[in-house]
Design brief:
Layout (H helix, E strand, L loop, with lengths): L1 H14 L20 E5 L2 E4 H8 L14 H23 L6 H35 L2 E10 L7 H19 L4 H8 L2 E2 L2 E2 L2 E6 L6 H9 L9 E3 L2 E12 L4 E8 L5 H16 L4 H8 L3 H4 L4 E5 L6 H8 L11 E2 L4 E9 L5 H13 L2 H4 L1 H12 L3 E2 L1 H13 L18 E5 L2 E4 H12 L10 H22 L1 H30 L1 H10 L5 E2 L2 E9 L2 H12 L4 H4 L7 E7 L22 E3 L2 E11 L2 E2 L2 H27 L3 E2 L1 H11 L1
Helix pairs in contact: 1-18, 3-18, 3-23, 4-12, 4-14, 4-18, 5-6, 14-17, 17-18, 18-22, 19-22
Amino acid sequence: MEGRIFKAAILLAFSFLTLTSCALVKGTSDSDQSITVGEVNGETVSWQELMRNYQRNPVGNETEDAIDIEELTGFLDLYLDYLAKLAAARDAGYFEDEDITSELNQYEMQSVYPYWMENKIKDELLQELYERAFEQIHVSHILIRVDQHPSPHDTLNAWNNLMEARERFLAGEDFDELSLEYSSSDRGRSMGGDIGFFSAGRTVKEFEDVAYSTPVNDVSMPFMTQFGYHMLYVKERREREPEKLFSHIYFAGDGDAEVTLNRAREVEQQLIGGASWADMVREHSADQSSIQRDGQIGWIQQGQYAAIFDSTIMALNQPGEITSAFQSEYGVHLVKLDSIKTYQDDAQLRSELEETLRNLPRFRNTRGTALQQVKAAGKAVFNTEARAEISNKVTGTPGVSFHNLEWEEGFKNKPFFSIDGTTYTVSDYFTWLEGRWEQEQTPIYRHSLADEFADAKTEAHVLDITKRQFPEFARLSTQYLDGLVVFKITEDSVWNYAAIDTSSLQRLFEEDTDRYRFERRYEFYRFSAAHDSTINKGITMFESGVPVDSLIGQIQGLTIRRDLVTNLDEHPLTLLADLGEGEYTETYTYRARRNLLLLQTIHEPRQMTFEEAYHRLVSDYQPIREQEWLQALRQRYSVKPYPEKLQEIASERL
């Protein structure tokens, strides 16, 4: 039921609100709230309410000066019926239905984090990216690799080593030398060191945030990213140059760099003499991936590549300008500047930065980023002393299982984390840990578990906080719930009811038996295979007396389908018109396979039995039942439309 309700409610929740409208009215005023255009269950419906729902039309409206009275009157009837359905659903307990509330919660939880991202976080991230985009930072760092969820021991060890390196740097030692000494290595190479210049969006956000908040010639405190624990040193800041579009001819070496350079210089002279750049790329470049683009390697930002390559190509300032042949960290090249990126205005720059942002992990991590905002909105607070005491106890008693640690009396009752007026104690945290560790073969305490606990508890408050922060989210949620319950009560009261009201179906059948008749029907088999020979095997067995149904699945490569149709207007069904029972067509090609049709039986027109007409009867009865149900709802909930009020208002405004 869950998936069915979910899909159908998407359509129904908004169906009454999205009727096609060709005209709008002029903006409503405060006085419109007192104009009653209808009543349901003793509650009045104002002109303002009616227009607010009428105007929620994704198709759009072409004018604000006209009123389509006929359409608006029809919408008023639909809207009042909708309110009556909601009233009936409320009285019948549909708003407490477990399937519906579960479906609503699923919808809200799927929507809440993207909603934060699109309606608050995106603008903040975009502004941050914009402010940082005009500057590049030259950074060196120390990286100590740890597991994604490090143990307290590993965390403490990394912290102490980084703080030791920091003290030595502040005492006058060279940072890059310290990076070689303290950084982890991968395949014999240091994971830290000088990473050159970079700008916003080029590193993980945690690293970027620290870099942009650290002054030149200063060193940060240790911090963690997905790669481990870092400490960085900012060497220089400079204004960011515009990106440039380059093409290159790459010359593969044969072991002798000077020979390769001489080959590149010969091509350089040909270009100076007027040779076509595209021809030289196709003839000489060893970079197969760029040859089809005339050597183009894309837009490049200063500092994006290794120092020699970067400084050489960035020295080009005129489109069409070509470097001299040079050897870089990557090999031997000739590079041409194709274009320098410019922006018509600030809006164009922001538009490009937004496209960049949407491709960054910081934007795609909607849950993690949104939870930080939710914590701030919910005034979340960690008891740092209790958190530190737990970590110190674990670190200070190596070899002792967490379950066997002893705690001071009353410690478990201390607050550990609070959000949105709810406080979770240390005991709550320990209970959560027990449940968390049931999923692990070798439970190990990690500092990050406290953050996971905070996220889990924040998630329990995320909907309440979001609805307070964003009334529109609350409105959309209410609208979705209304759609779910209206769909369900309609399903139960009309669609399912029509299927089980056999006395009404029987009466409808008897009132017009001629309506429920079979036309001439053709029952046939379709043989399908890659080759005629496979089909012929099946036909040979059929002619020898083997029933077709017995052939299904017996001949490799032969597919046999049975079908019943009334209309022979379309190919290949037209071929059946000339066959008698038991006859078959010639083989023909259809959808890249060989096919043959065998006509089994021609069923002449006849009256349907009640059982045969059942599904058609249900379909015919549903609109009748719906009108009966709506009429009952209108009486029960005193539905009163006042279309004359619409006419009065329209006359005044026209």
